[in-house]
C-alpha cells in the first residue's frame, strides 16, 4: 500500500507530484507529503489526512524545483500523524526518502544508527533509510565513483530486509533521482528530457505512455539526460521502455459521482470484452471454443487445483471452484492466501496452482505463490509447480512471477471496492472451466455451446438490471441508511455472491454485514435475527431455489425484513419478500454475474446516502502490498 511518485525534468515538480499522488490516493490516504530540492536544500512539506490538506499547505509556497518525490500513506508503523508522514529525512536534512513496503530489520538498523549519532523524528520503519544513505555518503571515499549518491543508495539497500520500493533525492545531488524496487511495484516513465517514477501507471499516464516497470533487485538513476538501470551488485542492465495501453480519460470519473458507480456501469462492457477475447466462434474451433493461450501440457493429467486469493478475489475463486468442479470435474480447493502461506496443503501431484489478484500486487497472494513454487522446486516432475495467475494487471509483480496469465479485461479500477474486476474474474473462471471441460470432455459440445450462448446474453441482462435497479436500490438505501446489521444469504454458486454482497456493504458503508450459505442459518446465525436485521436472499430458480425460499421464510418468521434478489416474474418470491431486487431469469450456472450487480448498487447507495467516501473508505487501500 502507499503510493510513491517522483519527477525530474524541466517543469516545476510540485504540481506533477500532486497530480500523480491524486491518482495513487487509492493506495492509502491517511497522510501525504512531498520533498523537492531547490537552491541546495531539501524542502519537505507533509500533512495529515487526505491529499487536499497537503495541497492547501503547498498553495501558500512558491517552489519552482524541477526534481521531487511524493508519497500518500497507508499507515503500517506509527500512527497516521504528520510526523510519521513521508518523505523522511536524515539528521542533516540532506537526503529525503519515500517508501512503499515494510523494512523488517528497521529496529536493529535504527539502534545502530542512533549509536552513530543519527537523530530520529518518527515512529516509522522508513526513517532508517535516509539515515543509512547519509551514513554511506559520509563514508564514501572521495571521487570513488561517477555517482556517489547512487553508490550510497545501493549500499544502503543491500542492508535492508523486507519488501519495498523507494525513491530518494539528495540536496547535494540535485540532478539525480534514485529509485529502487524490491518486491513492491515501481514503474519508470520516459518523457522528453523529463522522467517519472510511480507505484502505478495512472500517476504518470497524463505525461507519458513510455514506461518501464522495474524488476525486483533493480535500482534506477534518473537524471535530466536519461535513465540508467543497475542491479544491487552495481552491474548496469540494458532495458527498454514499452508503450502503455492506457489513456488519461480511463482514469477520470466521466460524469459519475464516484468511480465505484462508473465502474459498476462499465460491467456490461467488461463482459463483452471478455467474451470477445476468450471465446472463439464455435464453427471455427476444433477442440475447444475457448482461447486462453494456455499450453496444452498445462492441462495434461490434471488431478487437482489449488487457488489462493484474498478479499473479493477469494469470492471470485469460490465461484471458480463451483465451475471447475461441476463443469470440468476437477477437485478444487480455495485458500485465503494469508493462511495458505503458513499452512499449505500436503503436496499433491499434477496440481494446477492459481493465484487470483486484480492488482497483481497483493503481498499475501504473491507470498503464497512464491512458497508453493519454492517447495515444489526439485521435486519429481509430476510435483513441479504449474502456476497460473488471474489478474487485471499483467504487468504487475504477479505477471513477473508466474509463467502464464489470464488477463482479466476490466480496464483500470480506481474505486477501492472491487466491482468490475470481480465480474472480469468471474468471466476468466467461466472460460477456464469451460476450456477444461472441453478438453476433458466432461460436458458435451452442445451443452458448452448453450452455456457460451447464455454468456453472450449477459451484457444486455446487466444493462437491464442497472436500468431497473438504480432507483430501487436508492429507495432501499433511504430505508437502510441507519441499519446496524445485515445478513446476506445464498446457496450453491450464489453463496460466494452473498459473501461479496456483505463485503461490499461492510467496506464502503461501515455497516456490519455477514454472508452465509442459506442452509447454515439454522445452525447458529438465526439467533441474530429480529425486526432490526434485514436479510438479503439470492433466490435463483435451479438446484437450490426451493431451499433458499424456505430459508428465507425462516428468517421472515423471525421478523426480519426480507429483500429478494430473484427473477422479475416470480410470483412465489413476490409473496415472500418484502422488497425485490429483480434480475432476469438466467441459467443458475450463469447467475452470479448478474446477481452481484444489485448488491453492488445497494452497497453503493447506502454508503452514498450515509455521506461516506465511497471510493476511498476508511482504513482500506486498493493494493495491499504488506502482509
Ligand atoms: O488486488 P487483489 O485482488 O489481490 O485484492 C484483494 C483484496 O484486497 C481486495 O479484493 C479487497 O478485498 C477489496 N477491497 C474488495 O473490494
From TrEMBL:
Keywords: Aminotransferase, Cytoplasm, Glutamine amidotransferase, Repeat, Transferase. Transmembrane segments: none annotated. It catalyses: D-fructose 6-phosphate + L-glutamine = D-glucosamine 6-phosphate + L-glutamate. This is Glutamine--fructose-6-phosphate aminotransferase [isomerizing]. Pfam families: GATase_6, SIS. The keyword Transferase applies. The active site is at residues 2, 622. Residues 2-225 form the Glutamine amidotransferase type-2 domain. One of its GO terms (biological process) is amino sugar biosynthetic process. SUPFAM superfamilies: N-terminal nucleophile aminohydrolases (Ntn hydrolases) (SSF56235), SIS domain (SSF53697). Gene3D superfamilies: Glucose-6-phosphate isomerase like protein, domain 1 (3.40.50.10490), Glutamine Phosphoribosylpyrophosphate, subunit 1, domain 1 (3.60.20.10). One of its GO terms (molecular function) is glutamine-fructose-6-phosphate transaminase (isomerizing) activity. The keyword Repeat applies. PANTHER family: GLUCOSAMINE--FRUCTOSE-6-PHOSPHATE AMINOTRANSFERASE, ISOMERIZING, GLUTAMINE--FRUCTOSE-6-PHOSPHATE TRANSAMINASE (ISOMERIZING). Residues 294-442, 476-617 form the SIS domain. It is found in: Cytoplasm. InterPro entries: GATase_2_dom (IPR017932), GFAT (IPR005855), GFAT_N (IPR047084), GlmS/AgaS_SIS (IPR035466), GlmS/FrlB_SIS (IPR035490), Ntn_hydrolases_N (IPR029055), SIS_dom (IPR001347), SIS_dom_sf (IPR046348). Catalyzes the first step in hexosamine metabolism, converting fructose-6P into glucosamine-6P using glutamine as a nitrogen source. Homodimer. It is an enzyme of class 2 (transferase).
Amino acid at each position: 500500500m502507499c503510493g510513491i511518485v517522483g519527477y525530474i525534468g524541466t517543469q516545476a515538480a510540485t504540481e506533477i507530484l500532486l497530480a500523480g499522488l491524486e491518482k495513487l490516493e487509492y493506495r492509502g490516504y491517511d497522510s501525504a507529503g512531498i520533498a523537492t530540492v531547490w537552491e541546495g536544500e531539501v524542502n519537505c512539506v507533509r500533512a495529515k489526512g487526505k491529499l487536499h490538506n497537503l495541497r492547501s499547505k503547498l498553495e501558500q509556497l512558491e517552489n519552482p524545483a524541477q526534481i521531487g518525490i511524493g508519497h500518500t500513506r497507508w499507515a503500517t508503523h506509527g500512527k497516521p500523524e504528520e510526523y510519521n508522514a513521508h518523505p523522511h529525512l536524515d539528521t542533516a536534512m540532506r537526503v529525503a526518502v519515500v517508501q512503499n513496503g515494510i523494512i523488517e530489520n528497521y529496529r536493529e538498523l535504527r539502534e545502530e544508527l542512533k549509536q552513530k549519532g543519527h537523530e530520529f523524528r518518527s515512529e516509522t520503519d522508513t526513517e532508517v533509510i535516509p539515515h543509512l544513505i547519509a551514513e554511506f555518503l559520509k563514508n564514501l571515499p572521495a571521487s570513488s565513483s561517477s555517482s556517489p549518491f547512487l553508490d550510497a543508495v545501493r549500499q544502503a539497500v543491500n542492508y535492508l530486509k523486507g519488501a519495498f520500493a523507494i525513491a530518494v533525492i539528495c540536496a547535494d545531488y540535485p540532478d539525480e533521482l534514485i529509485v529502487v524496487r524490491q518486491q513492491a511495484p515501481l514503474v519508470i516513465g520516459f518523457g522528453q528530457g523529463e522522467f517519472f517514477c510511480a507505484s502505478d501507471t495512472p500517476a504518470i499516464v497524463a505525461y507519458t505512455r513510455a514506461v518501464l516497470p522495474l524488476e525486483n533487485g533493480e535500482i534506477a538513476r534518473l537524471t535530466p539526460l536519461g535513465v540508467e538501470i543497475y542491479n544491487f551488485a552495481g552491474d548496469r542492465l540494458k532495458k527498454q521502455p514499452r508503450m502503455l495501453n492506457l489513456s488519461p480519460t480511463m482514469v477520470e470519473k466521466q460524469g459519475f459521482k464516484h468511480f465505484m458507480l462508473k465502474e459498476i456501469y462499465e460491467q456490461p462492457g467488461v463482459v463483452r470484452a471478455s467474451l470477445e477475447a476468450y471465446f472463439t466462434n464455435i464453427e471455427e474451433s476444433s477442440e475447444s471454443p475457448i482461447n486462453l493461450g494456455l499450453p496444452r501440457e498445462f492441462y495434461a493429467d490434471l488431478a487437482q487445483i489449488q487457488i489462493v486469493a484474498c478479499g473479493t478475489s477469494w469470492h471470485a475463486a469460490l465461484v471458480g471452484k463451483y465451475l471447475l468442479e461441476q463443469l470440468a470435474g476437477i477437485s478444487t480447493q480455495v485458500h485465503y492466501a494469508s493462511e495458505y502461506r503458513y499452512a499449505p496443503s500436503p503436496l499433491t501431484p499434477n496440481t494446477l496452482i492459481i493465484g487470483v489478484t486484480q492488482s497483481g500486487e497483493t503481498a499475501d497472494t504473491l507470498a503464497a505463490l512464491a512458497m508453493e513454487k519454492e517447495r515444489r522446486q526439485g521435486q519429481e516432475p509430476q510435483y513441479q509447480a504449474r502456476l497460473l495467475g488471474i489478474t487485471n494487471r499483467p504487468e504487475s509483480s504477479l505477471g513477473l512471477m508466474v509463467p502464464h496469465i489470464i488477463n482479466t479485461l476490466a480496464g483500470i479500477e480506481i474505486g477501492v471496492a472491487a466491482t468490475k474486476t470481480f465480474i472480469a474474474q468471474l468471466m476468466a473462471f467461466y472460460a477456464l472451466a469451460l476450456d477444461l471441460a472441453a478438453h476433458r470432455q466432461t460436458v458435451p459440445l452442445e451443452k458448452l455451446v448453450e452455456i457460451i450462448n447464455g454468456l453472450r446474453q449477459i451484457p444486455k441482462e446487466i444493462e437491464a438490471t442497472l436500468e431497473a435497479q438504480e432507483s430501487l436500490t436508492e429507495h432501499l438505501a433511504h430505508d437502510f441508511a441507519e441499519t446496524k446489521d445485515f445478513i446476506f444469504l445464498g446457496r450453491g454458486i450464489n453463496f460466494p455472491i452473498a459473501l461479496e454482497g456483505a463485503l461490499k456493504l461492510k467496506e464502503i458503508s461501515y455497516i456490519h454485514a455477514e454472508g452465509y450459505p442459506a442452509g447454515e442459518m439454522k445452525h447458529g446465525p438465526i439467533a441474530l435475527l429480529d425486526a432490526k436485521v434485514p436479510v438479503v436472499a439470492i433466490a435463483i430458480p435451479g438446484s437450490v431455489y426451493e431451499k433458499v425460499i424456505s430459508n428465507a421464510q425462516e428468517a421472515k418468521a423471525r421478523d426480519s425484513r426480507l429483500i429478494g434478489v430473484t427473477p422479475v416474474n416470480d410470483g412465489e418470491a413476490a409473496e415472500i419478500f418484502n422488497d425485490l431486487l429483480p434480475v432476469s431469469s438466467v441459467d443458475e450456472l450463469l447467475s452470479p454475474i448478474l446477481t452481484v450487480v444489485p448488491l453492488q448498487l445497494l452497497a453503493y447507495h447506502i454508503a452514498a446516502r450515509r455521506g461516506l467516501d465511497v471510493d476511498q473508505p476508511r482504513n482500506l487501500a486498493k493494493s495491499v502490498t504488506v502482509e
